[in-house]
From TrEMBL:
Molecular function GO terms recorded: pyruvate, phosphate dikinase activity
Residues covered by the PEP-utilising enzyme mobile domain: 435-517
Native species: Streptomyces fimbriatus
Required co-factors: Mg(2+)
Stated name of the protein: Pyruvate, phosphate dikinase
SUPFAM superfamilies (alphabetical): Glutathione synthetase ATP-binding domain-like, Phosphoenolpyruvate/pyruvate domain, Phosphohistidine domain
Swiss-Prot/TrEMBL catalytic activity: pyruvate + phosphate + ATP = phosphoenolpyruvate + AMP + diphosphate + H(+)
Family statement drawn from the similarity comment of this UniProt entry: Belongs to the PEP-utilizing enzyme family.
Enzyme class: transferase
Short name of one Pfam family: PEP-utilizers_C
Length: 915
């Protein structure tokens, strides 16, 4: 079939004109990841660069999609595979699985986004009882041939036929025990031949069929298994965790085999062009002599550092260093490389832009700018807010008294403390019960993914920086220490023995430092991150490692601030939080929740207001509250001098300021039984009953309070106005904005605004001070969003309250549903992520878009912001940039994240700025 650069999906069981399902490695390039998957696109790119890549071909993601939708492969696929296989056989001068000179191939998955270890791979396809003899003669090595055959049966049995992998592992361990050896390389050809017989019996017993001897059947079943693995439990779980779309499908790469298990002049390894843990330049990676690739990733045998390859095979080492430099300059990024050496011949099996730790991401981005490989805008796309948030986590206090019991490889940084657990099931179970856990394994495998997600950190006694545990942990931002060989992990007895004989039992507290690789008994205290100290103004860029990271963060934040359009404000209710927010880069306050000012020692005054039976009593209570409110605002305006401060008038139901109904009932009952005075408690109880609502979040709150409790909102407006006047008299620059909550109709806002304007005018006249106080509203009800054009007639600004808007759009009570059924919704794929964490673009987002458009049609200069939790969520910040908001507001510690993401949104945006 002719090649089509813009293929369309074939219909079930049919062939569509112009559709091409199979591409030779010589046909693709790195920009075809949607079609060829990351692995296939990069194999094609390396082939185009003239690098030594074993010949092969890629079956596209479109073929996978047809299979997943219909249950059958496209009708044309078999013929296309046959044609490409024939071309591969001609190129290699041998046929798949032929008896005397067999061609062997690998069948590997390769989705658009890297999903390490989550989907399936089968090596050595083409081996059979007949061709194993031919492979032995071809290689001149019986042991190698039988070792390759047992690997095929083991991988094929587990991956394609669904046989429990532990059965093969147990048989391998038994063979080593019988031979009195500790590693599989010490097994001889005769031992491996017996093991093949044992493995075939396991397949027959467990799968109910013989291991297939037809090489084409092996290949076809393996291809189908890779397609099926896209919807495997661990792959789906990983995609949910990493927010990878479920409809992409995977490509399948069929590649001629090269062998790293041909003896000491052969081997396999993984290399990084820079350290994925720190970002530093140098020689990083692992190498394993006389091994196939899966041995390195699985951590079954401990590797040697990549630098050792120079001593083992200098020719291959020098060639690899040249290739690594070529790839990094070509991709302009850290590259993760898999390679095999077959009897002194270097082969490249894969490259991809490598996963890295948060610190490494920031360091590498600035390094590449300094090297002239990328510009500032591109650098911003190489880091993200989640990574910055991770860098702000605390670290261990190195000056504390600690008991170090081991040290491994620092695979993924962080300071993790938790109870020791030795299997994934327990990690999940304990985590759901609120326990913090450290998952301890000899080495992890893809089946451990749910436990790795649940754990605070991962500790393994085997493997290196390229093991499964290390790669997956880095991708998830989890603390990980690998290859702590001095620790003896016994998963069956659920214990770990440390040097000196001390035993860590399941449930014992341990601490692991993913930055140093150190393992400690007990809980080690933590200290603030140097990045937080930098934002607080207590640390400045310098020369040591921590300061080097701070320098990188400082530069990336400067890039972001230069690029971003969105301003970033803080949610802050007092001067202390406001000052902290300002140090973190806040450009004002987007939400001051005045209800927080009514708590503590002021609760009694609020109770008196609620209990007031007469207008005089109510006015007396408001009069007592006024100077306290005014002082709150004076302090806030002073802390945020020259920057806008948006103050939300009282929002929550009044019952929240009264004692709990059960507690109060008990107090009244006890007082009555003891015949003690309880008039005040009884009045409180009557008020609690009077104010009780079945659904208080949809009851008497927000603007409704201001309309039914005379003087409440006007007291708050007067306090704001008088505080602003006082600050102006002190030569300050207060920029207050008054926000009316929970408005559903313009008439509510008009009534409150008319009263507010009157109060402001009175204060101006009394103080002789001109006050410019903007009045606006929160858009947090669907009706408000739908009638935004009308509401904008009375509002100078909107602030979207996306917490309440999400609740009212979805009909969710956040306090109840997150604990009751959100876990099930996430597991079933109904949510990719909680709509309270990242804005629901299709539902809530549509209302925001329409409200922005309608509001600005009415009032072109309408100021627009958001003050819900979404204001600090990285993905949501991009949405708010796209729809044209002026600012986002979030908690002080999320401000740097929002600043960074606002910069990233500006350089990646596909839309206009709506201004």
């Amino acid at each position: 079939m002719s090649e089509n650069k813009d293929p369309h999906v074939a219909q079930h069981g049919t062939s569509v004109e112009g559709v091409k399902f199979v591409y030779d490695f010589t046909e693709g390039n790195k920009d075809l990841k949607d079609l060829l998957g990351g692995k296939g696109a990069n194999l094609a790119e390396m082939t185009n660069l003239g690098l030594p890549v074993p010949p092969g071909f890629t079956i596209t993601t479109e073929a996978c999609k047809v299979y997943l939708e219909s249950g059958e492969e496209p009708a044309a696929l078999r013929d296309e595979v046959s044609a490409h296989l024939a071309a591969l056989e001609e190129k290699m001068g041998k046929k798949l699985g032929q008896a005397d000179n067999p061609l062997l191939v690998s069948v590997r998955s390769g989705a658009k986004f890297s999903m390490p270890g989550m989907m399936d791979t089968v090596l050595n396809i083409g081996l059979s009882d007949k061709s194993v003899q031919g492979l032995a003669e071809q290689a001149g090595d019986d042991r190698f041939a039988w070792d390759s055959y047992r690997r095929l049966i083991q991988m094929f049995g587990k991956t394609v036929l669904g046989v429990d992998g532990e059965l093969f592992e147990d048989a391998l361990e038994a063979a080593k025990a019988a031979k009195k050896v500790t590693v599989d390389t010490e097994l001889e050809a005769a031992d491996l031949k017996k093991l093949v017989t044992k493995f075939k019996k396991i397949v027959k017993t467990e799968a109910g069929r013989d291991f297939p001897q037809d090489p084409r059947e092996q290949m076809d079943l393996a291809i189908k298994a890779v397609f099926d693995s896209w919807n495997g439990d661990r792959a789906k779980l990983y995609r949910r965790q990493e927010r990878i779309p479920h409809d992409l499908g995977t490509a399948v790469n069929v590649c001629s085999m090269v062998f790293g298990n041909l003896g000491p002049d052969s081997g396999t390894g993984v290399a990084f062009t820079r350290d994925p843990a720190s970002g530093h330049q140098g020689v990083y990676g692992d190498y394993l002599q006389n091994a196939q690739g899966e041995d390195v990733v699985a951590g079954i045998r401990n590797t040697v550092p990549l630098a050792e390859l120079e001593r083992i095979d200098k020719k291959s080492y020098d060639q690899l260093m040249q290739i690594m430099e070529t790839l990094e300059n070509h991709y302009k990024d850290l590259c993760d490389i898999e390679f095999t050496i077959e009897r002194g011949q270097l082969w490249m099996l894969q490259t991809r832009v490598g996963k890295r730790t948060a610190g490494a991401a920031f360091r590498i981005a600035t390094q590449l700018v300094d090297q002239g490989l990328i510009d500032e805008a591109e650098a911003l796309t190489r880091v993200n807010g989640a990574q910055l948030a991770q860098l702000m986590f605390p670290r261990f206090d190195e000056s504390a008294k600690v008991e170090q019991v081991g040290r491994g490889i620092a695979a993924s940084p962080g300071a993790a403390v938790g109870k020791a657990v030795f299997d994934s099931y327990t990690a999940v179970k304990w985590s759901r019960s609120g326990e913090k856990v450290i998952l301890i394994r000899r080495e992890t495998n893809p089946d451990d993914l749910d436990g790795m997600i649940a754990a605070e950190g991962i500790l393994t006694s085997r493997g290196g920086k390229t093991s499964h545990a290390a790669v997956v942990a880095r991708g998830m931002g989890k603390t990980c220490v690998c290859g702590a060989e001095e620790l003896e992990v016994d998963t069956k007895r659920r214990r770990m023995t440390v040097p000196g004989g001390h035993v860590v039992e399941e449930g014992d507290l341990i601490s692991i430092d993913g930055s140093s690789g150190k393992v400690y008994l007990g809980e080690v205290p933590v200290v603030p991150s140097p990045v937080v100290e930098y934002f607080e103004g207590r640390m400045h860029p310098g020369a040591d490692d921590a300061d080097e990271l701070v320098e990188a963060v400082h530069r990336m934040m400067a890039f972001a601030d230069r690029k971003r359009r969105l301003r970033v404000r803080a949610n802050a209710d007092n001067a202390e939080d406001a000052l902290r927010a300002r140090r973190f880069g806040a450009q004002g306050i987007g939400l001051c929740r005045t209800e927080h000012m009514f708590l503590g020692d002021r609760r009694e005054l609020v109770e008196r207001l609620i209990l007031a039976d007469t207008e005089a009593e109510r006015e007396e209570s408001l009069k007592a509250l006024l100077p306290l409110q005014k002082q709150d605002f004076v302090e806030l305006f002073e802390a945020m001098d020259g920057l806008p401060v948006t103050i939300r008038l009282l929002d929550p139901p009044l019952h929240e300021f009264l004692p709990d109904i059960t507690e109060l009932s008990v107090r009244v009952a006890l007082a009555e039984s003891r015949q003690e005075p309880h008039e005040n408690e009884l009045r409180l109880l009557q008020a609690v009953h009077r104010l009780h609502e079945q659904n208080p979040m949809l009851g008497l709150r927000g603007v409704r309070l201001g309309l039914v409790i005379p003087g409440l909102f006007t007291m708050q407006v007067r306090a704001i106005a008088e505080a602003a006047a006082e600050r102006r008299a002190a030569k300050g620059d207060p920029r207050a904005e008054i926000m009316i909550p929970l408005v559903g109709t313009v008439q509510e806002l008009e009534i409150v605004r008319e009263e507010a304007d009157k109060v402001i005018a009175e204060v101006q006249e009394a103080t002789g001070t001109e006050l410019k106080l903007a009045i606006g509203t929160m858009i947090e009800l669907p009706r408000a969003a739908l009638t935004a054009g009308q509401i904008a007639e009375a509002a100078e600004f909107f602030s979207f309250g996306t917490n309440d808007l999400t609740q009212t759009v979805w009909g969710f009570s956040r306090d109840d549903v997150e604990a009751s059924f959100f876990t099930a919704y996430l597991e079933k794929g109904i949510f990719g992520v909680s709509p309270f964490e990242t804005i629901d673009k299709d539902g809530v987002g549509s209302l925001v878009k329409s409200a922005v458009r309608a509001g600005r049609e009415t009032r072109p200069d309408l100021k627009l912001g958001v003050c819900g939790e979404h204001g600090g969520d990285p993905e949501s910040v991009h949405f708010f940039h796209e729809v044209g908001l002026d600012y986002v507001s979030c908690s002080p510690f999320r401000i740097p994240v929002a600043r960074l993401e606002a910069g990233r949104a500006a350089v990646t945006s596909t839309g206009s700025d709506h201004r």
